[in-house]
Every structure is written in structure tokens, then in C-alpha cells.
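Deliverable D2.4 — example input (C-alpha cells):
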């Protein structure tokens, strides 16, 4: 069986085709992403700008998808239709994937499955990191979401309970705001990580703001911006960003383990591609089982949507 996944997030247009075998294994047949263009110096896109770029990108991905599906018939199409799987969760960008997906499903006479962007991140993480525990904690660290979740995964269904999250800026916004200030293009995660690797002094000591399951990054962002204005070394500022994020979620994850007694932890979202942060968490909490997906599957992608479609159909 072949399922097509679509994801139209704030900054990436994505499609993927997943094949489900008779043994229940899922193989990625094809996937492609087109990053939305953000002018240098900008810290993001307005929803209207992102929607316009998605509309231009979708036909390009459809053409490539069809060329990678020779002789095979799709059994279903799934798309991210909202940010999170909660009531009133909405963003205009996801209506593009929903509209294209529903229209194609109608024309092809196949089922359409709607899912949330967050569920797609978790599904792709489960598949890539082989995190098949029935219950686990999930850290979703990105520019649009920063949350710690309790997840029950049973018979292809995700039952998610929100434990906590950010009270202001998301982890990815923290990274991008400092990265843009340092002169990088948005999103700035990869360039900031490269710069941080040049740190010789261990990075700026940045105040960490954690209360229970909730984090705050607005204060740390202001702290580093002021330090840079006063002449702080860029590489030390970059390492300070990484360490602040890692320390924040080390505290949050330890609290979750102490209260929930769940040892398995899946880490996903664009920030989860950062090698330093992953190492900090794993070494700081050695008694937990961390599952880190391949870097290419932690950021925005349509693989998770395709997988959720297959799980829904089975």
C-alpha cells in the first residue's frame, strides 16, 4: 500500500510517499521539501507570504511525486491540517495542504486523512528513531512549538497529554532571534550550531528560567542580545544559547521522570537536530532512554503525515 503525506508548515512545503508492506513495515519511497524563502534580516514570514509560497511550491512537488509513483496506485492521502490536535488549533498555512490533499483524494477516489503538524513530528520521530514504546515522554522543540508531552502509542494511535511548554518564546525562536542578530539567514539553527562549535570558553553563562514544566526564553534572549551589544564573542553567545536550551529541558525532563516514572524520551522538532543539545541531555540524564531521530526527520517533513495515514487505514 502506498500513502502520500503533505505538510505545509510555516517554513517548508513537504510531500512524502510511504510504502506499507504485508509485514507491516513502513518504507520511505520518496520525499521532497522546499524551504520557504525568508529575506535576510527578517525573523520569519507573515502567514499570507507563506501561503503564497506554498501555492507556488505545491504543483512542483505534485509533479515530482507522480514521477516517483510509476505503476502504483495511492491508497490514501494524509495532510497536516492544524498545528496541534486540540480544539481551536488553527493556522492558515495548513489549509493549503488540506485543500490540495482533499482535492486530490476526491479525484483519485481514495480516503483523505487529516492530522496535526505536531502528531506528524512525533510519528516521524517514532519511525526514524524506532521508538516503539507504548508510553514515552516527547520533547517537541521547534520554532513554532516548545512542549513536553506524555504520549501513549498503541495500535497506531497517539494519545497525547500536554505536561508543559514555553510561556513566551519557543526554543527555535530563541535560536533564530540570536542567529539573525549575528547576521545569519532565517532559520539560523545550522549556522548557529557551526558558530557555537568554535567556542573556547564554554559559552556565555545565561540565566535559565524554568518553573515546573514551563520554560521561558524571552529573558535569556534579551540577556544575550545585550551581551552582544556590549561586545561578547559571537561564538560564546551561540554556545550560551545551546546550553540554556539544554539546561532548561534537562530540568523539565528530570521533573517529568520523577513524577511520571517514564524512562523513554523522544526528542523531535527542528531544534532536536542540534548535536550539542542532544549530547547534553543524554549525558545529563544517563538513566533515561533517549530516542533521537535522524536529523533529516526532526524538522518539518511530510513523512509523519504519510505514516499517520497508513496507521489510520490499518
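Example output (designed residues):
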Amino acid at each position: 500500500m502506498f500513502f502520500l503525506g503533505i505538510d505545509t508548515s510555516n517554513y517548508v512545503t513537504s510531500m512524502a510517499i510511504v510504502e506499507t508492506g504485508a509485514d507491516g513495515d513502513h518504507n520511505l519511497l520518496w520525499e521532497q521539501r522546499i524551504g520557504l524563502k525568508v529575506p535576510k534580516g527578517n525573523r520569519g514570514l507573515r502567514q499570507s507570504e507563506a501561503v503564497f509560497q506554498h501555492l507556488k511550491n505545491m504543483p512542483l512537488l505534485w509533479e515530482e511525486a507522480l514521477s516517483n509513483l510509476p505503476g502504483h496506485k495511492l491508497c490514501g492521502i494524509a495532510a497536516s491540517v492544524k498545528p496541534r490536535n486540540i480544539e481551536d488549533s488553527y493556522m492558515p498555512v495548513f489549509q493549503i495542504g488540506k485543500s490540495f490533499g482533499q482535492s486530490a483524494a476526491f479525484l483519485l477516489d481514495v480516503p483523505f486523512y487529516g492530522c496535526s503538524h505536531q502528531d506528524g513530528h512525533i510519528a516521524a520521530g517514532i519511525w526514524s528513531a524506532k521508538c516503539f514504546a507504548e508510553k514515552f515522554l516527547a520533547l517537541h522543540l521547534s520554532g513554532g512549538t516548545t512542549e513536553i508531552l506524555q504520549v501513549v502509542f498503541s495500535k497506531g494511535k497517539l494519545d497525547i497529554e500536554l505536561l508543559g511548554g514555553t510561556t513566551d518564546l519557543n526554543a527555535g525562536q530563541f535560536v533564530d532571534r540570536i542567529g539573525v542578530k549575528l547576521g545569519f539567514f532565517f532559520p539560523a539553527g545550522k549556522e548557529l550550531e557551526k558558530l557555537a562549535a568554535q567556542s573556547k570558553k564554554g559559552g556565555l553563562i545565561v540565566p535559565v528560567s524554568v518553573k515546573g514544566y514551563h520554560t521561558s526564553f524571552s529573558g535569556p534572549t534579551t540577556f544575550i542580545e545585550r551581551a552582544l551589544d556590549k561586545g561578547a564573542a559571537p561564538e560564546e553567545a551561540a554556545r550560551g544559547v545551546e546550553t540554556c536550551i539544554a539546561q532548561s529541558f534537562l530540568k523539565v525532563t528530570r521533573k517529568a521522570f520523577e513524577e511520571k516514572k517514564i524512562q523513554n524520551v523522544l526528542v523531535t522538532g527542528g531544534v532536536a537536530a542540534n548535536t550539542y543539545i542532544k549530547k547534553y541531555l543524554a549525558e545529563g540524564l544517563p538513566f533515561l532512554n533517549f530516542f533521537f531521530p535522524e536529523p533529516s526527520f526532526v524538522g518539518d517533513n511530510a513523512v509523519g503525515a504519510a505514516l499517520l495515514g497508513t496507521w489510520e487505514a490499518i
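The chain has a mean pLDDT of 96.
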